Amino acid sequence: MARAVNPRRRLVLVRHGETEGESSIRYHGRTDVPLSELGRAQLRAVRATLRQRHQLAKFERVFSSPLVRATEGARLVAGENSKVITIEEFVEIHFGRFEGLATREIRARYPTDFERWNADRLAPTYTYPGGENRADFMARVDRGTDKMLALWDAAKPVVVDCALLVAHRGVIRQVVRRLTGASPIVELGSIQIVIDDGRWRAAALDLVDHLARV
After folding, report:
1. How far apart, in Å, do the first and last CA atoms of the chain sit?
2. CA dihedral 104, 105, 109, 110 (to 10 degrees)
3. Contact 62, 73 (CB under 8 A)
4. Does pLDDT of 187 surpass 90?
5. Which position among 89, 92, 94, 168 bears the catalytic label?
6. Residue 68's Cα: distance from chain center in Å?
C-alpha cells in the first residue's frame, strides 16, 4: 500500500548564526566553533519571525547537524526544551587546509590551491586540499536527507506537518537542491521553507529581512 502524502508538510531550514570563529568570513567545516552573541541574537530573530510572520510556533521534529553551532541554534529557534535529533551526515564539508581561514588568507598561503578552488569549487570532482571531495559530500548529505525523512515518517500516526533543520550552508543548499531542484544562497541566519504537497517544492528561499533588526 502506498504511503498517504501528508498535505503541505513543511520543512523549515535555518543556517546557524555568526560564530566565535567568524563564520561570516572564515571557512569552518568540521571545526566545532560555538555561536557568538551576535549569532544567538540572529537565531532569536529567526524564531520571532517564524512565529509572527509564518505562524510557526511549534515543530514536531527538530533536526540538526551534530556541531554545536547548529545544535544550540536549533534550541534557540525551536525552544530550549526541544528534543534535537542530530544527523551525523549533516556535518559541514571538510575544508581541509582551508579550515578556519578567510579568503585573503587562503590566497596568500596557498595561491595554487586558491586558483584551482576559485575555478572549480562547485564542480562535483573538486576535492578540498587535505579535505573532502564535493561529490562525496553531496552523497553524504543525500543519505542524511533520506535518514531525516525516514525519522519524520516514523512519527506517524502522530500528525507531523512541520519540522525544523538547523545546519550549515553547504548542507542546506544540498538538501533543498535534492528535494526541490532549487539552489539557494543560504546566508548566516537565513530561512528556507520547502513544502511537500505531493511533491517537494520551494515555498520561500533566502529569507533574511529579520536580520535587519539584529
Report:
1. 49
2. -60
3. no
4. yes
5. 92
6. 13
105 counts as catalytic = no
Cell of 212: 535587519
pLDDT band at 154 (very low <50, low <70, confident <90, very high): confident
Domain limits of the chain?
9-213
DSSP state, 197? S
Active site includes 20? no
CATH architecture designation of domain 9-213:
3-Layer(aba) Sandwich (3.40)
Distance CA 58, CA 67 (A): 23
Quote the cell numbers at residue 110: 596557498
Question: How many residues does this entry show for the chain?
Answer: 214
Distance of CA 95 to the CA centre of its chain: 16
Model confidence, pTM = 0.94
